[in-house]
Each structure stands twice: as C-alpha cells, then as structure tokens.
C-alpha cells in the first residue's frame, strides 16, 4: 500500500550550513597556495572581500526586516570566490565594491539565498570587469617562486608572466619568436598545473583546485556531470581547433589556463544557478565549454569562463523545463 504524506518525502541530515562550510574547507588549500605564491596581500584582499559580503548581507536582512542570519556560510563562500577572481594587485576598494554588487544586485534583489538567478560572485566580478577593466586585466603579478623558463628575444618570460596571464600571452604575443613553442612546452604545462604563473588569486594552481574539487566530489557536495562535461567540451573543441591551426596552443594548455578549474568545480556547480536534472547538468557543462572556447578563440577577451557560466545561468530554467523527468504514473 502507498502512504500519502506531504513533501518532502526524502529527508537528509545535510544542511545549507554544512554544505557551505564544506565548500569553504575545500577552498582552504587553494587559499594557502595563493598566499604562498603571491604573498600576504592575498590574505588582506580575501579578508576584505569576505567581511564586505557578510556585512552587506546583514544590512540587506535588516532593511528587509528579516532575522539576521549570516552563519550559514553562503556570504563567506561568495566573498572567497569573489576574491579568488581578482588579480593580486587590485586596489583594496575593489573587493568592497564587488561584494556590494554581488550580494545586493546578484542575490538579495532576487529574494536572497535560493532565489538568485546568477552566481553572485561572478556577478560581482563582471561588474568590476566592466567598471575597472585596466585593473582586472592589466595589473598581473608574477608568483614569488618560479616563472616560465627561457628568454625570448625582446620579451623576457618574466615580463610575459608579470604583465599578462598565459591566455593573454597566447592571444596577444603568439607571433613573438619563440614564445609559442614555450607556451606549448612541457615545462610551461607543469607551471600551469602547479601554479607558478600569473593569474587571479584563486585560479593559478590547478593542482590545488583539483584537490578541492575531489573533496567536494567525495562528500557529494557537487555532481561530477557539470565539471566533467565542461572539461571534455573544452578539450575536444580546442583539440579540433588546434589541429586545424585555428588556435596556436594545445588543448592541454587551454584546460590548465585561466579559471577553468575554479569555474568548473566551484562556480558552475552552484546549486541555485545550475540545473537540477541529470541531463540538464550535461547540457549546462557542454554549453559552458562551448561558450568558453568561442570567447577564447574568437572573442576580444582572452578568458571566457566567468561569462560562459553567467550565460548558462540564464538558460538554467529553460534547461530544467525541457529535461524534467516523466512523473511516476504518467
């Protein structure tokens, strides 16, 4: 016999607070590595970003006359991810402005946690990118240890790493003699994997991001479908384009460069802004991969991870509608 009862029919001990603090714990290796690579300024920028997101969320709850609840960890996660999307040399006011925009415009305007359409951290990053593009794209710093080895006539590798990310170097300086072969060299790929390269605070070390992603997968905080489909799509498309000589760098270079690991594991998998169906998650990851490759190869901006996720966030309701499973008995 069937027992008729009100939903939810399946209960679990997993709470929002537990999920958020697990995500925070998985980000700590990346955070420690970022401090090691770029110095104590990383700690200051991240602390400012987290404090700003928490204060903004508390103020919004006061204005909306709701109980102040900042202990669930969601604002802290937003603050950390926002900081991880900033170059190490940005002024200290930028994480404050980005946090304000991320929490108020990206989250609270829609009704708060669980109702936002777009990933709040990426909303804040997109606003900072539109407002201060010179700070967000032209103020990179070389890591304190290690650089891409070798010297290029008229352009040292230290200059490349300091003034641009590897993707920017591939897009802007690919015609420089010797640089293209250096970008595709094994030593460069090792540098990209372990983090001895220029980039945003939390995107340089693929090894540490992979460790954090594995933690989330082990504890079943995220589903493997979005990261896997994202990686496979980027690798496949860039492999074809590299074979056709449309892009000058290898698919492995594209996988290890930019914020792909950070976006695939920690932002594309956001519960609220990604599909809830299994088929939908495959579609979401594939869509993110396609948009990322299109922006990187044909767009004027060398990186496309953040914008690809935001665009697919907008398509999430439509994806869920067309991939919803058949109701039992229908």
Task: Provide a descriptive summary of the structure in words.
It is a single chain. This protein has 330 residues and is mainly alpha-helical. It has 2 domains: 16-138, no CATH class; 152-157 and 165-194 and 222-323, no CATH class. It has helices at residues 16-38, 41-63, 74-84, 93-105, 120-131, 133-138, 157-163, 166-172, 179-183, 186-194, 206-218, 225-243, 251-256, 260-267, 278-298, 305-323, and strands at residues 151-152, 155-156. Strands 1-2 form a two-stranded antiparallel ribbon. α15 (278-298) packs antiparallel against α16 (305-323). The protein starts with 15 loop residues before the first helix and ends in a 7-residue tail after the last helix.
Task: From the structure above, extract its key features.
mainly alpha; two-stranded antiparallel sheet; 2 domains
- Principal-axis shape equals globular
Q: Which stretches of 5+ consecutive residues score pLDDT under 50?
A: 146-163
The number of domains is: 2
Report the radius of gyration as a whole number of Å: 20 Å
Beta-strand portion reads: under 5%
| pLDDT averaged residue by residue | 87
Q: How many distinct helices?
A: 16
Give, in order, the helices and strands: HHHHHHEEHHHHHHHHHH
Structural class: mainly alpha
Largest sheet: 2 strands, antiparallel
- Fraction in helix: 55-70%
Compute the number of strand runs. 2
Q: How far apart, in Å, are the first and last alpha carbons?
A: 19 Å
Going across the major beta sheet, what is the strand order?
A: 1-2
């Amino acid at each position: 016999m069937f027992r008729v009862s009100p939903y939810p029919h399946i209960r679990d001990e997993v709470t929002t607070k537990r999920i958020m603090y697990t995500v925070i714990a998985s980000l700590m290796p990346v955070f420690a590595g970022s401090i090691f690579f770029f110095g104590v300024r990383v700690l200051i920028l991240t602390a400012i970003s987290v404090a700003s997101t928490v204060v903004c969320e508390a103020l919004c709850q006061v204005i909306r006359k709701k109980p102040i609840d900042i202990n669930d960890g969601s604002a802290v996660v937003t603050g950390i991810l926002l900081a991880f999307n900033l170059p190490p040399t940005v002024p200290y006011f930028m994480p404050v402005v980005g946090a304000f925009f991320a929490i108020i415009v990206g989250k609270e305007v829609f009704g708060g946690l669980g109702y936002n359409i777009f990933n709040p951290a990426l909303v804040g990053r997109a606003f900072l990118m539109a407002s201060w593009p010179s700070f967000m794209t032209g103020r990179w710093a070389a890591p304190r240890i290690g650089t891409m080895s070798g010297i290029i006539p008229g352009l040292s590798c230290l200059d490349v790493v300091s003034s641009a990310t590897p993707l920017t170097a591939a897009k802007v300086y690919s015609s420089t003699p010797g640089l293209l072969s250096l970008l595709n060299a094994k030593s460069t790929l090792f540098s990209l994997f372990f983090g001895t390269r220029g980039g945003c605070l939390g995107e340089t070390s693929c090894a540490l991001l992979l460790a954090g992603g594995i933690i989330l997968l082990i504890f079943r905080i995220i589903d493997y479908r979005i990261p896997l489909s994202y990686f496979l799509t980027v690798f496949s498309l860039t492999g074809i384009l590299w074979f056709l000589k449309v892009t000058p760098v290898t698919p492995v270079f594209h996988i290890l460069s930019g914020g792909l690991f950070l976006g695939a594991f920690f932002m594309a998998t956001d519960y609220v802004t990604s599909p809830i169906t299994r088929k939908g998650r495959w579609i979401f990851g594939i869509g993110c991969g396609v948009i990322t490759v299109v922006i990187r190869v044909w767009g004027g901006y060398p990186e496309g991870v953040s914008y690809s996720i935001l665009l697919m966030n907008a398509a999430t309701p439509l994806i869920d509608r067309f991939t919803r499973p058949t109701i039992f008995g229908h």
